[in-house]
Amino acid sequence: MNGRTDTALGSYLRHMRELTAPERVGLPTSTRRRVPGLRREELAALAGLSPTYYTRLEQSQPSHASMSVLLSISRALGLNNDEEAYLLKVGRAPDQAVPQRLSTDNRISPATKMLVESHRNVAAAILNYRCDILAWNTIFHNLIAPHLNFDAPAQDDRPNMIELNFLDPAVQALYGDWGKESLYNVSYFRCIAGDHRNDTHLASTIDRLIEASPDFAALWDGQHVENCTEGTKTLNHPHVGTVELMYQSADLRDGNIMKIYHAIPESDTEQALISLGAADIPQDEVAARRRLVG
Q1: How far is it between the farthest Cα atoms of the chain?
Q2: More confidently predicted of 284 and 26
Q3: Packing angle between helix 214-221 and helix 200-212, nearest 10 degrees?
Q4: Over the stretch 164-187, which tens digit does the pLDDT of each residue have?
Q5: CB 157 within 8 A of CB 151
Q6: Distance between CA atoms of 246 and 233, rounded to whole angstroms?
Q7: Which contiguous run of DSSP H or E holds residue 262?
Q8: Which residues contact 143 (CB under 8 A, 6 or more apart)?
Q9: Where is mean pLDDT largest: 45-54, 64-73, 211-220?
Q10: Range with the poorest average pLDDT among 2-11, 133-142, 222-231
Q11: Element (H, E) at 286
Q12: Angle formed at CA 170 by CA 167 and CA 171, multiple of 5 degrees
């Protein structure tokens, strides 16, 4: 992968050290501190490492460390579960990585296609681990991107969910709380990048987003990590109005991910989803979205 992956451990350690207040780990505060967070030598002492070795880790020389060292640093920083998991991903040597079953050909089986199409009252889509959309049902299509062709996921230049959210104004305008949504998107994408450190295609997607979206670039530099696989979100849809949705992501046996937006049974939001599956979006609305995208 590119230089970003080679320096991922050092960048993450430096960022998390600077975010850690001395009082959080039992150290006295001082008005003489010229840098935010902990000093390198303080973190090294808390983790039981030599200052020289810890400094070399922040400089990515080496670019990985043993599991015991990484866990010691995690405890010293007080990382949460997602933050520690990411540290272990980017800090382990490549031959220490846990093998994962991956879908590499961007194809889905007839059974998986049938699964996503069978959902009649939820928005459902199949994504690969890079967040490329491989299939969607009518509700998902009409909810998120009716200005794209329904068969767009079957094309070579299939839409990517993260790119839609950051680079497509029509999609971005749907979210009731774009600040929260954008942070979740980047936090989840960083988790993915930690799992797939040698994926040049994924690296290219990240580079493209950094170049095209200042919002993405700023959030990516923030190093926030969270495996956002379930929660709630509000969408302001021009056809059905405001909908309060729950979302979940489920791993499939073929290595892909099923993403579902659903609502409380028999609620107004569920009826709105059902209506999106039963009716075509008006062409003037589709045209307006396409004009917004440019």
Answers
A1: 65
A2: 26
A3: 120
A4: 999 999 999 999 999 999 999 999
A5: no
A6: 6
A7: strand 257-262
A8: 123, 235, 237, 261, 273, 276
A9: 211-220
A10: 2-11
A11: helix 283-293
A12: 70
The rounded distance, in Å, linking the Cα atoms of 172 and 154 is 23
* CB 121, CB 140: distance < 8 Å: no
Residues 141-168 pLDDT 10s: 999 999 999 999 999 899 999 999 999 9
Which helix H or strand E contains 42, and what residues bound it? helix 40-47
Q: Which residues contact 115 (CB under 8 A, 6 or more apart)?
A: 124, 258
Q: Are 161 and 133 in contact (CB under 8 A)?
A: yes
Those residues with Cβ within 8 angstroms of residue 272's Cβ, 6 or more apart along the chain or in another chain: 237, 240, 241, 243, 263
The H or E element containing residue 289 is helix 283-293
6 φ/ψ angles, rounded to the nearest 5 degrees: -60, -30
Question: Quick one: which H or E segment has residue 73?
Answer: helix 67-77
Instruction: Lay out the sheet containing 133-136: strands in order across.
Output: 133-136, 123-127, 257-262, 241-251, 230-237
pLDDT band at 12; cut points 50, 70, 90 = very high
Sequence-distant (6+) residues with CB within 8 A of 201 are: 130
pTM for the structure as a whole:
0.74
CB 119 within 8 A of CB 126: no
Tokens of 73: 């640093």
Cα gap 67→144, rounded to integer Å: 41
Q: Over pLDDT 70: what percentage of the chain?
A: 83
Write phi, then psi, for 168 (nearest 5 degrees): -110, 105
Report the candidate in 12, 17, 200, 3 with the shortest Cα–Cα distance to residue 91: 12
